[in-house]
Design brief:
The protein has five helices and five strands. The protein is an alpha+beta fold. The protein has a three-stranded mixed beta sheet with strand order 4-3-5, with no helix packed on it. A two-stranded antiparallel ribbon has the order 1-2. β3 and β4 form a beta hairpin. α2 crosses α3, α2 crosses α4 and α3 packs across α4. It is globular, with a radius of gyration of 18 Å.
């Protein structure tokens, strides 16, 4: 069942404005049920491929197609509501913007994704900038290896 909790915007006195509603209305676009479902699925899943988002959304709206999910994710990224990164050689992985910027830790053994504080990469970014004049985008940084459960086999 879809979450009907007020998210801000009109009628939610004292609540913070809903970033999705604000971003859409600033562009003169409507908050449609499909856009809301896709945005909510990305938030609920944490890190998800379009296929995973579609599976989540289809639990509530079975007729929603994968192509609609792709188009909606593209719009949501243009609006700054979600962001994508490439954690594997497959489809992009999306997560909600507004969360703290983080490093993605990708386990090659189990496929799990964890997060680490981006401050851990600050020294590396500073050295790259100093030595190469290159400013890094740490919001797209992913490190691949083995998680604690996967061990160092």
């Amino acid at each position: 069942m879809a979450d009907t909790t007020p998210r801000g915007g009109r009628g939610a006195r004292g609540a913070e404005p809903d970033p999705l509603e604000v971003a859409l209305r600033e562009r003169g676009l409507r908050v449609t049920p499909q856009r809301r479902l896709v945005a909510d699925a990305v938030s609920a899943l944490g890190h998800a491929t379009p296929e995973q988002v579609c599976e989540q959304v289809q639990q509530v709206a079975p007729a929603l197609s994968l192509s609609t999910v792709y188009r909606t994710l593209e719009l949501l990224e243009d609006l700054g509501v979600v962001s994508h990164t490439h954690l594997t050689h497959g489809a992009s992985t999306y997560h909600a913007v507004g969360r703290d910027t983080h490093i993605h830790l990708v386990c090659r053994h189990c496929g799990g994704i964890d997060e680490a504080d981006v401050a851990l990469a600050a020294t590396l970014a500073a050295q790259v900038r100093q030595r190469h004049g290159f400013t890094t985008d740490l919001s797209h940084l992913s490190l691949h290896g083995r998680c604690a459960e996967g061990g160092n086999r």
